[in-house]
Amino acid sequence: MVKIEDIPRMADDWKQVFERNRVVPPHSQTARLAVESRFTQSHGFQLTLNRVTATHLPPQEKAVGEQSVTYQLRATLFDRNHQHFFGNTWKSSPQTIKNNKITFNEVLYVHTSLTLPSTLLVLELVSLSPRPDCSHQALGRGFTVLELFTNRPDTPAADGERRLNLHHGSPRALIHPLIKDTVDYHSILKIIEGAHLACVLKKHPALDSVLHLFPENVLVSGEENIPGLVASPTGDALLKPQTLKTLPFTLNRLTISLQPSLEKFESQLLQLINADCQNTIHPGSDGAIKTAVIQERRLHVGVHNGWCFLEKPQVVVLEAFPSGVRGRAGSPSKQSALSKDSSTSSLPQILSLRSSLELRLTNHQALAIIFQLEYVFSTPIGRETMLSATSTSRAAFLHSLRWGIWRPFQEPAEWKGEEIQLVLQGGAKPNPHGAMVYSTEVSAKAQSPAPISAPGTAQEVSEAKDMIKFWLSSSLERKASSPKPSLRTKQEDVPRQRRSPSSPSQGRKRIPTSPPESPQGPGLSLSQLAATSRYPTISHSSSALPWQQSFPSLLHPSPLASAHQLSHVACSAVSNFAHLEMDLQRGGDDSASLHDEGDQLQELPFTPVHAPVITLGMNVPSSCSVSSRSSLAHLFSAGFPDIVDSSGQVAEVLDPTEPLPFDPNREENDLQGNLLVFQFLAFTRIAAPGVGPDWPENIYFTFQFYRFPPVTSQRLKLLTGDKVQHKASDPLPCVLASINKDGTVNTGSPGLQLQFRVDDSFLKPGEKRWFLRYLALHAMHIDIWDSDSLLLIGSTAIELKYMLRQCKSAVQALHEVEVLTTDYVGEDTLLTNPDLGRHSASSPMTVHTIVRGRLHLRTGNIGCPADSGRKRPADVMQSLLHIITPREVTSGFRGGSLSSRNILQLNARNTAQADRLPINEDRVPLFRRGIRTDGVVPKENSLNKPDDSDRKLKCMASVREREASEDAKTAKVAAQSKKAQLANPSEAKSKAESIANMLSQAITTQHLLYASLGSAEYMEFVLKNPFNVPQTVTIHSDDPELSVITNTEEWRYFKALTRTPTPLEENMFHSEQGAPGPRVYLRPKESLHVPLKYQSFICDHTMALQGPSLKTTARGSQVAKKNLSNIIAAKTIKVTFKAEDGKPMAICQVNVEPTPHVIDQTFRLYHPELCFLKKAIRLPVWHDPAAGNSDAWAHVSVRCSDPNIICQTRMLAPGEPQDVYLKVPGSPSPHIKMFFVMVFTDKWMAAPSQIWQIYVHFLERVDVSCVTGQRSCQSLVLRGTQAIRKVKCFSSHPGEIEVDPVGVFVLPPAAVQELQLKVQPWQAGSRFLYVNAVDVEQQRLVTAWLLCLNVHRPVLSKAFEVCVPVGGGRGSSRKITYTNPYTSSRTFLLRSDHPDLLQFKEDKFQIRGGESYTIGLRFATSQSPGSVDILVYVNNLEEKTEETFCVKVNYS
Q: Which residues, 6 or more positions from 372, have their beta carbon under 8 angstroms from its beta carbon?
């Protein structure tokens, strides 16, 4: 245990580091401009300061002792627009001047998001003269300004080597009023002749991995000691930075005690705040005094390394808790304290944290944990009355009260297994949060921090000081020593616990109390999903999966496609989709136990329960799968535009319910282009619990077709016919109509029509069969959203194979698809259950498939006439595409310019030049007039006439004139070049580089490669040894995505896959450790084939903002434009073949052209913000008939397109399918993260068998524990942004959740708005509901909340049973007598959890005290026999349940 007297020295050490690294923030307007310009991503840069040439620098007088004067460079960031220095001032090491040159060779690093043209770097040269007292006198000798950025932030203005002139004076001249708004400082400032600074500025992408270790706008050198950074043996740790390993730690049992007591501390605090408010704010006209109240107590916990916070500090809410119940869980003293309210009410209160915190720490002595106590206060805005207690009548503000710092890895570190006691500080002292901290007379006496104290000395220290106490333990040690079973064991024990009530896990359950061993924050478990195979094989027949429709015999893949691309295509299936939420879990670890010192535990086999993925067409509850004739007649009476071909004829109609005859050869030989049309016609509402009958009112769609940009439609209104009579069992479809910008409905053509043109000008060479394969095998995923609340209604998918024309002029098909979503409901518990509040980690979740509606849309494909005069690059395929043969160089360099145009023409064949003919003197005037060659030959002359020599002479006159002009231009260029060489000696160097570049281009062979995400592209380069001696060639690729295949088995696999008829050699390559690449031996004049493979798993993840499109389409029609989003990046890769002397022998330049990838399944996940998402997706048992053995399914591997996401697969047991595990880092609400997962079933990962598109919606989590039928209130905090917004809140279940304020309210900038949630659920169990705060003007999402409801069943007062006949009739009526237990008159409300089955005679009644009332019940009839339990709630006016009756209805 650390002693108290050792503590101030340790605290001072951290204080010195913190004080040394304090920075000046940038100007607020500049920071706001950067955010508005979307410059939020910080970029790293490297600045190398080479030397200062000071030819005419005035001599410096030497100090006493004739000591030499040294020079120093100082650098500071400067804002030109606001004349503001910010960041820090970096100082170099002192250097001496030699031969009028000062050599520094210092390397600076900085990262900033202010990539604006106004951001400058000011460099000052300072001379240091020693003084007698060993100090130095600094004198400025000149300064210069370096412009960092231009109007294009991607291209720094000073990228590369720069030579900056020094100016007279001091950098303080830049803040002179006369220099304000000056763009060019060099025209105003006086230049020191012969003095300049040589430096190099360039981007430093390697700095991106350590941006969290030091703040923005800070100039640092690689020799700086930055905690968390691995020291480099070269001294420059930021050149190739590496971070120290972080370990997880758990902070729990946290309590805070304030002096003299919590009650007196807060009372004194409120008195001071109210007195301050009275002095600064005038009371209202009525003279009422506005009092402030404490709304929330918060604690900020973050890890600080002396420079900055390594992560954004976590914010938790503290609760007041009696200190007398503090002890071990389950102890008799604690249980007795809980049962006696009178004994705990007299004890002093402390602030306690009920949950635990997860921190990532690095074992470094300079690392510290920072605590900051913050209170949220609220004051009334207007006159406070009985009805003004809502959030709209009060304004909230924040105050920091205390803060503390503790270094866990200081020497000695004896805190393990002990309680840590830390003194909190107050007052106006610098702190890492940069906030003013509240101070009183009591706290002013305790300013010296005491981070740790032993248990025996804690009382003496904490008598007059504010203390925070907590326990810190390693999460790894906790998991290794925890007696809890592993995840698999716990999931296996679920059915066992149901059969055996006396299981050990249930015996250990107890009522959770605070503070000992706090539960694990918002713990999350692995929700496992099952994904069906898109290409089912023999083991997955159509009989086993009835929703998968097999291809007819004529529909088969194109034989021209690659073998590995179609190896699993046996039949088609529709893209699957799922909306998956987090598991409602209160505790438990989500990973298996780690290794212990003893024997390793053997994992038990089990079969986990997987939630099914929704597949299009699966059996779901539905009244009818196809609309009735009356509904269709109502639908087509709206007058939708017809789909017609180029001649005006209506397109041929295809039936989506019938098999489609398909001939791939006929489709590939079609010479016409394709105009693909999507018409969104109508949407049929289906009644659902929790929403009204008119929901939704407005919708919009999001989808992506092929490689066109993702489409977000405009807002569409659902029009209902008021005059049409229809039954409730057969709802009529609501016609869609576009909404104008002013909110009015477009009365023109109904529906929404989108068009995509795919012809030869759009497709790349060889892409046509890819596109046809996309239409034949793919189903397009469509998301349907509520455009008012921006909540997801559901998803659907349509098969695109009915858009294949088969050489017809036009085809169309009408689709009616169900819009589906999933709802996860956990087990319900009784309100009196002793296990209330502790949800098992392995609690099963019941998955319900809900049909939200039916979408009516029409698809069509119109043939476009092709241009016969142009080439068809889409059908041109080079022969032997996989073999790259260098061209033979048949001519040398003829001289002239070293431009790229001449260099690229080196491989062209030799051309003959005509000899110059003599010209007669009488033809000279004709020559000087400059007659063109095409105008010399008269029309009446011919080659057979005698005066043909005139025509030749005129032609030669034009030739001589052109040569004369070229000679004059060449002489002028030569003169300029000679003059430039005399002025700039570096021209010779650039000429040498140009010659080297010319020679490099002469041996470079270019190859165009079309690649898609995850697919491996195979090629062979023909390498020839041109020398008469053997050579050992080293092969080097400048991009790791393009590599050499050195494994013989892999080479053989790709040769067979691509059918490349070239020889194969065993053990051809030789690899050495540390070599730039593999080596190969070549005999003299020998040629061999070098196998290369390109494969990329990284792509772009750009997404549009959530919300409908603000652009309206003209008359419901739009033609999408070509886009290459969400695909791999286009790049140029060079593979260099170097000989033994290090010179290149040949260069293969591969130009990668991206092509789209097909998305097989789409998942949409919802998860709490800033938490890791952990999901498992189950794969089916894979079987490859071509493999010939039963172990072929074992070669399943996965890759993710986002390198920050952990994606892996492992096998559970022999014979079991595999699971794909995902671990996605969290983001703040309402961010949406999108990425792709590629599943490979072959050993060498030639091409993905499936590609999944996964969306993760991060929402702010709110846990609510309530009882069915009873209203519970919950407060939410909505924070304002930088602009004023008009916000309205929406809930996913308006019948169960009410949000106050109900309507539109104004959210001021940077304000805090309190929202009141009124939750009244009717279904018990664990559920997930959503609340969105939407900007109604911009139709954009402001904040989203994920409500995790833990709904319990109420305690029943009485139970009844009634029989109701089945079939027609008017139902059955019954009565229940209810007696008012109060002595006064009361008003009660009647509620039921099945309003469709039970109705009351009166929903509201009033009776006097002690009197009885007869409740009239009316039961509806049922069409099928069975029984159901209906709960009847008797609530008061505040919707609090007084009594609950259970009526069991038997339908017979």
A: 299, 300, 313, 400, 402, 403, 431, 433, 435
The Cα–Cα gap between 435 and 433 comes to 5
pLDDT classification of 607: cutoffs 50, 70, 90? very low
Find out whether 1021 and 1092 touch, Cβ atoms under 8 Å.
Answer: yes
Summarize pLDDT for 1103-1140 with one digit per residue, the tens. 767 777 766 554 433 443 444 456 778 889 999 999 99
If pLDDT is split at 50, 70 and 90, which confidence band does 1172 have?
very high
> Which position has the token pair 């008195």?
271
Radius of gyration of the chain (CA): 39
Q: How far is Cα 1147 from Cα 1135, in angstroms, rounded to an integer?
A: 6
Cβ proximity of 840 and 627 under 8 Å: no
Secondary structure letter of residue 1217 according to DSSP: P
Q: Which of 82-86, 1100-1104, 1151-1155 has the least mean pLDDT?
A: 1100-1104
Helix, coil or strand: residue 1293 = coil
In 947-1030, which ranges are E strands? 1004-1011, 1017-1024
Tally of CB atoms within 10 A around 1451: 18
Q: Are strands 1232-1240 and 1197-1200 parallel, antiparallel or unpaired?
A: antiparallel
**CB 720, CB 684: distance < 8 Å:** no
| Residue from 126, 71, 64 nearest 100 by CA | 71
Q: Give the full edge-to-edge strand order of the sheet including 1398-1400.
A: 1372-1379, 1412-1419, 1398-1400
Strand-pair category, 1404-1407 with 97-98: unpaired
Among residues 1261, 1256, 1292, 1258, which one has the least CA distance to residue 1165?
Answer: 1256
* Tokens describing residue 661: 């005859």
| pTM beyond cutoff 0.90 | no
Backbone phi, psi, residue 861, to 5°: -140, 120
* Cα distance between residue 716 and residue 1116, in whole Å: 11
Please name which of 1010, 744, 998, 723 lies closest in space to residue 882, comparing C-alpha atoms.
1010
pLDDT tens, residue by residue, 788-814: 999 999 999 999 999 999 888 999 999
From residue 513, alpha-carbon distances to 324, 335, 350, 351, 1228 in Å are 12, 10, 14, 14, 30
Integer distance in angstroms from the first to the last C-alpha of the chain?
Answer: 75
The owner of tokens 């604006």 is 116
Distance, CA of 113 to CA of 1268 (rounded, Å): 50
Tokens describing residue 375: 């209170």
Task: Let me know the angle formed at the C-alpha of 545 by 542 and 551, rounded to the nearest 5 degrees.
Answer: 35
Quote the CA–CA distance of 1222 and 1198 in Å, as a whole number: 10
How far does Cα 968 stand from its chain's mean position? 60
Cα torsion angle, 1112, 1118, 1120, 1121, sign: negative
For the cut 80, the answer to whether the pLDDT of residue 40 exceeds it is no
